[in-house]
Amino acid sequence: MASHTEISPREAADRLAVRELIDAYAHCADRRDAKGQMSLFTEDTRFLVFMDATAAEPTQTLHGRESLAPVFDNLNVYRATTHFNGQSTISMDGDDRATGESYCLAHHIGVDESGQRTLMIASIRYLDEFTKQGGDWYFAERRLMVDWTETRPSTP
């Protein structure tokens, strides 16, 4: 754990901005704002999905902001989602680079053809590389790590 006996106002502002970036990602996902979600990434971003967090290779690798659209649009298969962001660690690397790990419990409500409602909960972690461009923070790389999922029937 980092010791912060003194922190500059600039570093405090950068740390807050990175945390707000993490939260904006979840907010856009739950509002189905794929364009807003995509705008949080650099043009040349990398997005890697590990459906099994213990796997050596990602299940899916995307390059570039525009490649993210189908992934974010895929959330539309659910009736609703709620992403609860938990703890996060951020390590600053100079004035315009940072890395971090953040935890999230993502709740997904689905309805199948017969009308049966299900709740899928995913415990996920994001391993991130952030960059500051033009005064704003962006995801340069985001690794979505699925630690576990549970799916069960749900009632309205």
TrEMBL record:
SUPFAM superfamilies: NTF2-like (SSF54427). Transmembrane segments: none annotated. InterPro entries: NTF2-like_dom_sf, SnoaL-like. Residues 10-143 form the SnoaL-like domain. This is Nuclear transport factor 2 family protein.
